[in-house]
Specification:
Elements (H helix, E strand, L loop, with lengths): L1 H15 L6 E8 L6 H8 L2 H4 L2 E8 L2 H10 L4 E5 L1 H8 L4 E6 L7 E5 L14 E4 L5 H12 L9 E4 L3 H10 L4 E4 L1 H10 L4 E6 L8 E6 H6 L1 H18 L3 H11 L5 H14 L8 H14 L8 H4 L11
Parallel strand pairs: 1-2, 1-3, 6-7, 6-8
Antiparallel strand pairs: 3-10, 4-10, 5-8, 5-9
Length: about 325
């Protein structure tokens, strides 16, 4: 009798015990691109919930605004360019990379197909469009031109023209001679206007730390379980990207509801090649990010990757 009563009390306690409250985490996302997909996929698949996290994405139009929100505490984490790790560290803000997202640079330089350009040298004297001054695309273009002996301030004119339809209109109208196009924009050219444009220069096999999920040390130290949970959930999503195109296509369709099926198919096929399969920021990728950024912002001091990067151990629960 006592044994049955004790067993009943254990069952009752288990049923009556309140569920462990989920930890709310706000993650800033920048624009619309492939780097958001692991975050959105982790939400879609319930990976964050499995880590007892209530993740709320918050959209920002640019990385600079998201940095302000992160420093100000209105968001907990952000998925943005690892360039900001160097900038934040130089300001004494102690950034931390939780998990890597990109593994390569994602830009190409697109020109009209009929112009006959053969190399970047042929663009001397021309106007080249980037999303904005000081942006990821601007820094990459300036670094490349300089490495080829082309002065980005004297030999060409680099102008901020935005991205997407705005950049395409500038190229079509002749306002610029070439544009820096990230993956979604390039696929738009190829799918919507086949044969009218071509890639003059391609950075998509240049290893680079790109975008990552980034927070500040004070938040990571205060929420170690949540930090590990975010990293594990994003890593699971990155691994799913490599093997489940249908899951990727569903997120791409959510991101681009007005685009054609052909665009969604092309974007879905491109994503696994661009996204990290293991969530780690490589030594080579971090070094390339540092090299490119410091070529345009030489006042920034280098930051040891080991001081800021948790991506090699956090998803696995170490350190």
């Amino acid at each position: 009798m006592q044994a049955r009563l004790a067993g009943a009390m254990i069952v009752l306690a288990a049923v009556s015990a309140p569920a462990l409250a989920q930890t709310k985490v706000t993650i800033g996302l920048i624009g619309t691109n492939e780097s958001q997909i692991p975050i959105l996929l982790a939400i879609d698949q319930g990976y964050f919930k499995a880590e007892n996290l209530d993740v709320q994405p918050m959209q920002f139009r640019g990385g600079g605004v998201a940095v302000q929100a992160l420093v100000g505490g209105s968001i907990d984490l952000a998925a943005f360019a690892t360039d900001h790790v160097l900038r934040l560290a130089n300001r004494g803000m102690a950034p931390r990379i939780l998990v890597g997202i990109d593994r390569y640079l994602t830009h190409t330089l697109v020109v009209p197909a009929g112009k006959g350009y053969k190399s970047l040298a042929d663009l001397k004297g021309g106007k080249l469009g980037v999303s904005a001054p000081g942006s990821y695309s601007d820094n990459t273009l300036r670094w490349t031109l300089s490495s080829l002996g082309i002065d980005p301030d004297r030999d060409v004119t680099i102008v901020g023209i935005g991205s997407g339809n705005t950049a395409r209109a500038a190229l079509e109208s002749g306002q610029v001679d070439a544009v820096m196009a990230a993956t979604p924009d390039l696929l738009g050219y190829e799918v919507d206007a086949p044969g009218r444009f071509r890639v003059l220069y391609d950075w998509r096999r240049t290893e680079h730390s790109g975008q990552a999920v980034i927070g500040l040390r004070k938040w990571v130290d205060a929420h170690p379980d949540a930090a590990r949970g975010v990293a594990r959930a994003v890593l699971k999503a990155e691994q799913l990207i490599q093997r489940d195109p249908a899951a990727v296509a569903r997120i791409v369709r959510q991101q681009y509801p007005d685009r054609s099926d052909a665009f969604v198919q092309a974007m879905t096929a491109a994503v696994p090649r661009l996204i990290s399969p293991d969530g780690r920021v490589s030594v080579q990728g971090y070094a390339k990010m540092t090299e490119i950024l410091r070529s345009t912002e030489p006042e920034l001091k280098p930051v040891d990757q080991e001081q800021v990067d948790l991506s090699a151990r956090l998803p696995g629960g170490d350190g």
